[in-house]
Amino acid sequence: MTAISIDGMGLTGVLRLTWVQDELAHVLDHSHTDETSGTWTGLACPGHGLALGGDVDDAALRHLAAGSEIADLTWEAPDELAAEHAQVFQDAMHAHQVGDSERAGRLWEELQATWSRAWSANHAVLEFMQGTGLSRFAPVKPQHWVVASFEHHTSPHGLPRPHIHNIAVAKLTTTALTHFPTGGTGSSRRQG
Question: Which of the pair, 181 or 71, is modelled with greater confidence?
Answer without folding.
Answer: 71
